C-alpha cells in the first residue's frame, strides 16, 4: 500500500474536518475522493492518531434540528469516593448525552459531576432529571440543573489549513 502524498494528506484532513461520510464504507469513499485506496487512508489516520494529531473521532449532534428544543445540565456534588460509580451509572442512561467529572470550584461551585439531558420540552427534561435522581438514589446529594438559553455553534475538529493559508495546525 503506497503512502499518501502531501497533497493527498492535506485533502484527506480537509475531508475529515467535514465528518465521516454516512455510508457503510466511509474510508473507501474518502479514498476515492483523494484518488487512493482505503488501506492507505486508514494507515494515514492511524499514523495521525499515533502522532497525537487527534485522540478519537467524535460525533456532533445538532439536537435542536432533531426537535429536541430543551436541554439541561444536571450538576451534582457527589462524594469523591462515589463520583466514579455515579458517573458510570449516569453515563449508561439513554437520555444522558454527556457525562463528565470536573473539579469543584469552592466556595462558589460545589459540583463535580455534570450530565447533559435533552428533551423536546422543558417539562420532559425536568421529569427525566427527577427520574434519574430517584433511579440512582442521588436525590439526597446537592444538585441543580441549568437549562440552556442559547445555542452556540457546534463543529468538529479542524486541523488542516486551506490551500491559500498554507500548512497550519488547529
| Overall geometry | elongated
Count the helices. How many?
A: 5
Radius of gyration: 21 Å
H/E element order: HHHEHEEHE
Task: Give the mean pLDDT.
Answer: 87
Distance between the termini: 28 Å
Low-confidence stretches: 162-170
- How do the strands of the widest beta sheet line up side by side? 2-3-1-4
Major sheet: size, sense and barrel closure? Answer: 4 strands, antiparallel
* Number of DSSP strand runs: 4
Please state roughly what percent of the residues sit in beta strands, choosing from under 5%, 5-15%, 15-25%, 25-35%, 35-45% or over 45%. Answer: 5-15%
Task: Find the structural class using helix and strand composition.
Answer: alpha+beta
Helix share bin: 25-40%
Could you characterize the architecture of this molecule?
The protein is α+β, with helices and mostly antiparallel strands and 170 residues long. The chain is built from five helices and four strands, in the order αααβαββαβ. α2 (26-33) crosses α3 (38-50). The protein is elongated and about 60 Å long.
Amino acid at each position: 500500500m503506497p503512502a499518501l502524498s502531501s497533497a493527498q494528506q492535506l485533502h484527506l484532513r480537509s475531508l475529515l474536518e467535514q465528518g465521516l461520510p454516512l455510508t457503510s464504507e466511509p474510508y473507501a469513499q474518502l479514498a476515492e475522493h483523494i484518488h487512493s485506496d482505503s488501506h492507505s487512508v486508514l494507515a494515514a489516520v492511524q499514523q495521525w492518531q499515533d502522532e497525537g494529531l487527534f485522540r478519537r473521532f467524535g460525533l456532533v449532534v445538532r439536537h435542536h434540528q432533531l426537535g429536541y428544543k430543551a436541554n439541561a445540565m444536571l450538576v451534582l456534588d457527589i462524594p469523591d469516593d462515589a463520583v466514579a460509580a455515579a458517573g458510570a451509572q449516569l453515563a449508561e442512561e439513554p437520555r444522558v448525552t454527556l457525562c463528565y467529572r470536573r473539579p469543584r470550584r469552592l466556595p462558589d461551585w460545589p459540583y463535580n459531576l455534570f450530565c447533559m439531558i435533552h428533551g423536546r420540552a422543558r417539562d420532559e427534561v425536568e421529569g427525566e432529571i427527577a427520574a434519574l435522581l430517584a433511579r440512582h438514589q442521588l436525590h439526597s446529594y446537592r444538585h441543580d440543573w441549568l437549562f440552556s438559553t442559547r445555542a452556540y455553534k457546534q463543529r468538529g475538529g479542524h486541523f488542516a489549513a486551506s490551500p491559500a493559508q498554507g500548512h497550519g495546525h488547529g
